[in-house]
Amino acid sequence: MKILTIPATNSRDGINRRLLELVGRRLAALRPTVEVELLDLNDFEMPIYSGEREAAGIPAEARAFYDAIGAADAVIISYAEYNGSFTPAWKNTYDWASRVDQKVFQGTPVVMLAASPGPRAGAGVLAGATTTAPFFGAELVGSLGVGSFHQIHDPETGTLGDPEISARLDALLELLIAAVDDA
After folding, report:
1. By the 8 A CB rule, do 4 and 69 touch?
2. Which of 29, 115, 150, 162 could be disulfide-bonded to 19 (CB atoms 3.0-4.6 Å)?
3. Contacts of 150 (CB under 8 A, 6+ apart)
4. DSSP string spanning 109-151?
5. Are 20 and 38 in contact (CB under 8 A)?
6. Would you say domain 2-182 falls under CATH 3.40.50.360?
7. What is the pLDDT of residues 70-109, one digit of tens each?
């Protein structure tokens, strides 16, 4: 089973990347045979999307991003929230990938997460992402926001110190594994 994790930001050391690193360890504990690949949006930098640029051709990076999703059995995205919405890096990559095919997720089971330094836990970005997911071919398994990340994440152990959030995250990962197994 191959699970693709994507921090939806171009930050190389952000909290959403750290959340996905934690998720990778939890997945390995739940299913030792799982292969987890972390995709870095910095590897898919493209010009800002516009119709005129699309008419000149879709960048190879957009096709590579789309193909990486298609090669996975499941996808977990952790959204950084900028001003209540998607990061420019995610929005641009996603916009270009949707020009390859609007069904960017290609029927793949998807879990959507968000980590934020504040208590709202990425509520704005998760609302937008989960609402539009079905239109883009996602089989949405569920979502979870992790707020006040710096207060509950232990960087030394790479764990979450909130038992309720940890239990909800584990339950969501088990649902994702079951969705892949049932497919």
Report:
1. yes
2. 115
3. 15, 117
4. EEEEEEE-SSTTTTHHHHHHHHHHGGGGT-EEEEEEEE-SHHH
5. yes
6. yes
7. 999 999 999 999 999 999 999 999 999 999 999 999 999 9
State the pairing for strand pair 35-38/153-154: unpaired
Amino acid letter, 120: R
Please name every residue paired with 79 in a beta bridge, in sequence order, or none if there are none: 8, 114
CB atoms within 10 A of CB 99: 17
Mention every residue, 6+ apart, whose C-beta is less than 8 A from residue 105. Answer: 69, 75, 133, 136, 137, 138, 139
Element spanning 153, H or E = strand 153-154
Q: What pLDDT was estimated at residue 183?
A: 75
Residues of the chain where predicted confidence (pLDDT) is lower than 50: none
pTM comes to: 0.96
